[in-house]
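Before the break, one more example. Copy the sequence into your notebook; we will annotate it together after we see the structure.
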Amino acid sequence: MPPTLTDQTARERFVAEQRVAFAPARLAVERAVCGSDYGGTSWTTMEEAGRVAGMLGVGPGDLLLEVGAGTGWPGLFVAQETGADLVLSYIPHLGLGAALARGVADGLGGRIWAAAADGGALPFGDGAFDAVSHSDVLCCLPGKFETLADTRRVVRTGGRTVFSVISMPPGLTGSALMRAVEAAPPFAESAEEYPAMIERAGWEIAEHIDLTGQYLDSARVTVAAEEAHGEALRQVHGEEDYAARLARRKLLVAILEEGLARRELFVAVAADARRTE
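Here is what the structure looks like once it is written out:
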């Protein structure tokens, strides 16, 4: 089995990704796959981001928290679409700086703030937000339940969370598990299924949508786009890293075709805290 990443190693990988996120070839791939140009690393397409904006139930005067905000996709887009104020939460300062700069450039100055914070230990008061979102973040964190529980704490009762997550079906073993772990995000494996974990954290699931088909389509487009921009991407990543990245992308397509990974969208409502005690 591939060696298990530590939380610190995973963070260093994300920082390394963000250092080259705005290279023209990287942005070209992002535009081809997601229709965005924020230097993002999630699989959220422009169509999905618009859908999420509607599901969150926020508008002008409301306060939205985006956990694992990275360089601002799709949180900044959602803030523009809904008119809500936005707090971007993330650990690496590099991503937050880029997100704030993009937000100001997009006319969101005065409506966006940033906090360098872990999703499982948020520095905000109880019920401070009207809604919270995150895009393919829990699959990159070892503390999945902690993040679900603390985001519930900082959202008012009746507020919503909308998030996408990549996972592996239960019961994978042997070579199937090895291949899925190699192609999936660093902490995609989970001992507990997400619906149970979400409800245990104090959320009530309102909608659960399978996005695996869209994920497979995006993975196929990624392979084609990274091959099309191969020469420029070799300059960005180096020959060896480019080859390894492309091989992982192709493996991702294969495991999705075989049903060894999935991507889901959850919409949940913050339950009355007294009912979860």
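The mean pLDDT is 93. The beta strands are 63-67, 85-90, 112-116, 129-135, 155-167, 203-210, 262-270. Try to locate both features in your own notes.
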